[in-house]
Every structure is written in C-alpha cells, then in structure tokens.
Design brief:
2 domains; alpha/beta; Rossmann fold; Argininosuccinate synthetase, chain A, domain 2; 14 helices; five-stranded parallel beta sheet
Length: 403
C-alpha cells in the first residue's frame, strides 16, 4: 500500500479507546494504521510495552518518541517565561502537550505516507480543537479522523469490541476519573468530581502529598535563572527537564501545586478540573518574583497583559498561530535581564519566596531605604504629585461647576 489514503497515523496512548481504534479504523476504512506514542514524562507504562500492544492490536507500525527534553525546552520553558496561568490558576498541563504531539503525528504522517491523522478525543473537550487546529496549521492537506467523537464510541462499545477480538488490553481496569499527565503536571476530571459540592478524594492525587497528613520539615532551596531559563538548583547545574522533575519531587512532597477549579472550556461549557503541578507552580512563582526585581515597570505591566493572552491562545489550541508566534518574540525579549537567584521555602502547600539577588536588579537600596543614606530627593515629590493629579483635579472642578 503506497497511496497516501491507505495509511492512517493514530495518536496512541495505550489505553482502551486508542487500542480499539486501531482495528476499527482498519476495518472501516481499509487503511493500515501507524500508531504514534509520545513520552512527555507522564510515567506509567513502559513505552516499549505500549509499542508492542499497538502492534498486537493490529498496527502495521508503532512509533514511540522520547520527547521529554523537547517538551521541557520548547513548550514548558516558553510557558514558564510567559508565567502562563489560564484563568490566573491553571498552568496549561494538557494544552502544552498537544502541539508537540501534533508535531510528531504530522512528521510520522509525512514519513509513512499517510493521508489521515486520527485521535481519540471526545466532542466535549478542548483537545479535539488543539489536535485538529494544530494539524491544520502544520499540514493542511491531511484529513482528520476522530472515532470516539464522530462515531459515538462509548466505553461499553469499546469494551465489547475489545472482548470480541481478544485485544491484549485489560478492559476491566477502569479509573473512576479521566486523567492526563506529563512532566509539567497532572489533570483529573469526571466521576464524582462532576458534582461541584464533592471534595476531591485523596486518591485523586498522585504527584503531591497531603501536607496536613504527611508532615515535612520546610525545604529551602535556591533556583538560579539565566535570561529566564532555570539553570541551577542549590548551585547544581540542571537542564530545564531536570529542574521540573526535581521540583515536582520536592514541591510535591509539600502538597504544592494542587488546584481545584471550575474552568471555562473552549467549547463553551464549564468543567470542574483538579490539577497537580508542583514543579510548574514552584518555577512560575520563582520566575515571577525574579521578573519583579529585573524588569522595568511599564514593560512588566504590559507583559502581564501579554501573559494572559498567551495563555488563552495556548489553551484555545492556537499554539501555531501568527499572534502566538509574535507574542513569543515579545516574551523572549522581555527575558533579556531575568537572571539571578531566588530563594524559596517549600512547606505546607505553599512555595514562599524569601530572598532575591541579581546582577541585573533594578532595586536600588539607597533609593528605597527610609534610613540614613537615602538618596531619594523627597523635595521633588510635591511638584510631581501636583502635576500627576492635575487632570483629575480639573475634571473634578468641572463637575462641581455643574452643581
């Protein structure tokens, strides 16, 4: 089979839905299926086990890509430098991973001569948009197939299909939650969480310890940044991936990065989500504070607007959009002086900054101090205040004149 229409590249997780999709796509379309699994630091099953399962389920080829470093350097790092928190809280755990998976799917489609890319997303979530808009941006000639969404696949149908064909997957194992995770964090939804009054049970959490139960002595550390890039922890050099992994462990031990929120999905519905992102939250907290020390006021104010828009674009599946690319240039330029050390204490669910130092600091002790050595000329302030408030004063007089 050499025709492009004879092959379908499937985003493969190793779970029930995508395992069933291999055989179903082959039967319904007559095409060969190439399964693509991407390691983003999610843990769980060994990728070789997943690769073999894809072949046993009928894939003609199975590709596994170790993209952990790529994910950290080219996706998590830009999010860190943008202090990206959707709705001021969510550090874009799933949203960051989708464009990278899309990139590998498109590369596989080109390499294997496939004319179609398939995914296992439902019609209710954001991921269908992220996959399909991303594929359209990188390879507009590719078709997209979404069996779960477009053909109303239910879990019951998938189980029956797997049992009928003796697929090598445990159909009895079912989590009460829908879970997506990678090195940047973990997202949990559905089940009892769909009732907004229900508190998250302890089994929801995996990346973090409950600080009220598992008491840990405070953990003090120093994170070193060079132009917005975390390059060392406690003086020891780290890659971006190592920084995230180490802080996942250390901040996770103190229950940092737990989020329980009602989120505005792109498709127009509100959804209750529970997130764990200890490394992401600790790094963003440190990075924000170093920017407070090293970035000039007007640039900092405008950057906060850019950060919100950047996070919305990525959440909405527009990673490859022209606006996102332009904002990347702004964020990159803003990192020029973001170098120095941040000391943090991890304890009781909170990452608290306790110290800052930087050769690029804009903080001037002699201007800030109220003690002896003050170089700030307070006599200049009277005229400044009068001129600054003049427009408001004139407007107020106009109102008074009208009674």
């Amino acid at each position: 089979m050499n025709s492009k229409t004879d092959r379908v590249v499937l985003a493969y997780s190793g779970g029930l839905d995508t395992s069933v999709a291999i055989g179903w796509i082959a039967e319904e379309t007559g095409a060969e299926v190439v399964a693509v699994a991407v390691d983003l630091g999610q843990g769980g099953e060994d990728l070789e086990t997943i690769r073999k399962r894809a072949l046993e389920c009928g894939a003609v080829e199975a590709v596994v890509a170790d993209a952990r470093e790529e994910f950290a350097d080219e996706y998590c790092l830009p999010a860190l430098q943008a202090n990206a928190l959707y709705m001021d809280r969510y550090p874009l755990v799933s949203a960051l991973s989708r464009p990278l998976i899309v990139k590998h799917l498109v590369e596989a489609a080109k390499y294997h001569g496939a004319g179609t890319v398939a995914h296992g997303c439902t019609g209710k979530g954001n991921d269908q948009v992220r996959f399909e808009v991303g594929i359209g941006a990188l390879a507009p000639d590719l078709d997209v197939l979404a069996p779960v969404r477009d053909f109303a696949w239910t879990r019951e149908k998938a189980i029956a299909y797997a049992e009928d064909r003796s697929l090598p997957i445990d159909v009895t194992k079912k989590s009460p939650f829908s879970i997506d995770q990678n090195v940047w964090g973990r997202a949990v939804e559905t089940g009892i969480l769909e009732d907004l009054w229900n508190a998250p049970p302890k089994e929801v959490y995996s990346y973090t310890q409950d600080p009220t139960v598992h008491f840990q002595a405070p953990d003090e550390l120093v994170i070193t940044f060079d132009k917005g890039v975390p390059v060392a922890i406690d003086g020891k050099r780290v890659t971006v991936l190592e920084a995230i992994q180490q802080l996942n462990r250390r901040a996770g031990a103190h229950g940092i990065g737990r989020l329980d929120m009602v989120e505005d999905r792109l498709v127009g519905i509100k959804s209750r989500e529970v997130y764990e992102a200890p490394g992401a939250i600790a790094l963003i907290t440190a990075h924000q504070e170093l920017e407070n020390v090293t970035i000039e006021r007007d640039l900092a104010r405008f950057k906060r607007q850019v950060e919100q828009r950047w996070g919305e674009l990525v959440y909405d599946g527009l990673w490859f959009s022209p606006l996102k690319e332009a904002l990347d240039g702004f964020v990159g330029k803003a990192q020029e002086h973001v170098s120095g050390d941040i000391r943090m204490v991890l304890h009781g669910g909170t990452a608290t900054v306790t110290g800052r130092r930087s050769q690029e600091s804009l903080y001037d002790f002699n201007l800030a101090t109220y003690d002896e050595g003050d170089t700030f000329d307070q006599s200049l302030a009277k005229g400044f205040v009068q001129l600054w408030g003049l427009p408001s004063k004139i407007a107020a007089k106009r109102q008074q004149s009208k009674g």
